[in-house]
Amino acid sequence: VRGTIFNELDDDKLHSVIDFSDFEERFKIGVGGPLINGTSVVDGLGSFPSKRFKRTENVSLLEHTRLRNIAISRRKIEIPVEKVISAVNSLDLKVMSLENVELLQRMVPTEQETKTYKEYVGSKKNVNLLTEEDKFLMQLGKVERISTKLVIMSYIGNFFDNIHFITPVSVKYTRYHASSIVHFGPPTPTPPPHEFQENET
Question: Care to name a GO molecular-function term for this sequence (predicted)?
Answer without folding.
Answer: actin filament binding
